[in-house]
Write a structure and sequence with these properties.
Low-confidence stretches: none
Strand content: 5-15%
CATH class of one domain: Mainly Alpha
Distance between the termini: 67 Å
CATH architecture of one domain: Orthogonal Bundle
Order of helices and strands: EHHEEHH
Structural class: mainly alpha
Number of strands: 3
Shape: globular
Strand order of the largest sheet: 1-3-2
Length: 89
């Protein structure tokens, strides 16, 4: 038996972001974020014709992305990037 919506154990409404809200937090365009959602680069869910992103999922994704980019040689913020490229020639 399904519980009525008022009895369901859901997070408060503020935990779901629209693309515009999430894009503002990430400081990217909504078009870019829409593309990332469609391509599965960022955890998002479609609700009807619109996308929604959980705040926790966005934070987890961002933390994971930061950890990956700082660990990869040649990634943004890598101080040895130019030196590595020069050694290849």
């Amino acid at each position: 038996m399904t519980k009525p919506p008022e009895e369901m154990n859901l997070r408060e409404d503020a935990s779901l972001l629209t693309l515009a809200e999430a894009a503002a937090r990430l400081r990217i365009s909504t078009h870019t974020l829409y593309k990332m959602c469609r391509e599965g680069e960022i955890p998002a869910r479609r609700v009807g014709r619109q996308w929604r992103i959980r705040v926790g999922d966005l934070e987890d994704w961002l933390t994971g992305t930061e950890a990956k980019s700082s660990a990869r040689p040649g990634s943004a913020g890598d101080p040895l990037e130019g030196i590595r490229e020069e050694g290849k020639s």
